[in-house]
Amino acid sequence: MTFESFPEGLSFFLWATLFLSVVLGVVVNKTNFCTMGAISDMVNMSDYGRFRAWLLAIAIAILGASILEYLGMIDITSSFPPYRAGQLIIVENLLGGFLFGIGMTFASGCGNKTLIRIGGGNLKSIFVFAVIAIIAYYMVYPLPGTDKTLFSILFIDWIRPMSISLDGHQDIGALISPDDSTITRLVAGLVAGIVLLFFIFKSVDFRSSKDNVLSGFVVGLVILGAWYLSSNIVINADESLYSLGDYYEEWDMLADDDEGKPAERRTLSSQSFTFINPIGQTYGYITSGLDKALLTFGLISVFGVILGSFLWSLVSKSFRIEWFFDMKDFATHLVGAILMGFGGVLALGCTVGQGITGVSTLAVGSIAALLAIIFGSALTMKMQYYKLIYEDEASFSKTLITSLVDMKMLPSFMRKLDAV
Q: How does DSSP classify residue 73?
């Protein structure tokens, strides 16, 4: 996709992003694709239908990304965020994923589900969105009147020293075969994708669920579409071809003035869907007075998913205004939003950003974050269930230990509450 000017290329990039985002919003709302719901179904009802839909999206993304990267059609290694960075921030991935998993359970859904709920009329999710936006923004950008971010104040001094510096990239292909990572990435991706597809489609119930199959395929394809789109916008300037990011770096030489120049180069890198950092970007965009220089793939994707969900809610007549039941419901969502804001930035993504987009790169940090999100959410659901059944008898320690026993992480003799 070659354009004669940077504004033309950027405009196409953002409009195409909006289209993909609207499709994502429509399909996720229609099919009730929900990662927290998938974990809830699995933990509470032993129903793996929506979990398999999530895995199908992952499988499609892995297979497509592996093949397209091998063919040189997408650029994953220099992506934003840097999933394959040589510094493996494993503790941040695990802690952030765990906090995010707890948070999305308290807040009734992950970042993507929050956007879907907003489009469907849920005012609680607007509140959750606002809290996530403020925390995510100040985790990355300095607090007013200072040069400190929430990350630098609360985390960097103790958590960053636990990162692991690698000689190369952190994806499975590069770790297995540093000298021939290209073919190894392809093989690893094909094997992982095929194994996942076998597990997914061996279920007769899943194969008969049109919504689950549709959602898995479409979400996976939309993730791939964004990878392809963001890797293939080219500007023809002075008889040379530049990507959006390369053009930005040569701006002073290629452009007559700064009109139309984006605020940051990294937002022009190859990328796909993630939602916590972009939700934070909306806070910066709004407080800047809607500065066009701050329009990014992430920002457009946030509004596009909301729009798609809203359109489907109108078509299906499912638009409903919802508010908090009581102060307990308010407090629970507040805590959940706070944990998602901190956790999503620490983990470098959410259930979509790390759980699908990140995993499609086969990055170790993304896989770790995904597992931590699932564990955090599943553990929280288990504890909530025991608290609901046993009420005052179920102390925090008893519910925690019993839940860990149920999850086979502690021996059965340590059980404090009878299984239900």
A: S
CA–CA dist 84, 87 (Å, integer): 8
| DSSP letters for 178-206 | GGGHHHHHHHHHHHHHHHHHHHHHT-HHH
Packing angle, helices 396-406 and 364-390, rounded to 10? 120
Using alpha carbons, select from 65, 377, 71 the residue that is nearest to residue 230. 65
Residue whose entry in the numeric block shows the structure tokens 């170790």: 364
Strand duo 2-3 + 234-237: pairing:
parallel
* Angle (CA) 357 363 366, round 5°: 60
Alpha carbons 237 and 257: distance in angstroms, whole number: 15
- For 284-299, the pLDDT digits (tens) are 999 999 999 999 999 9
Residue 4 DSSP class: S
Measured between alpha carbons, how far is 107 from 110 in angstroms, rounded to an integer? 8
Q: Please tell me the total number of residues recorded for the chain in this structure.
A: 420
- 350-398 pLDDT, tens per residue? 999 999 999 999 999 999 999 999 999 999 999 999 999 988 788 999 9
Q: Which residues contact 141 (CB under 8 A, 6 or more apart)?
A: 149, 284
**383, two tokens:** 């504890």
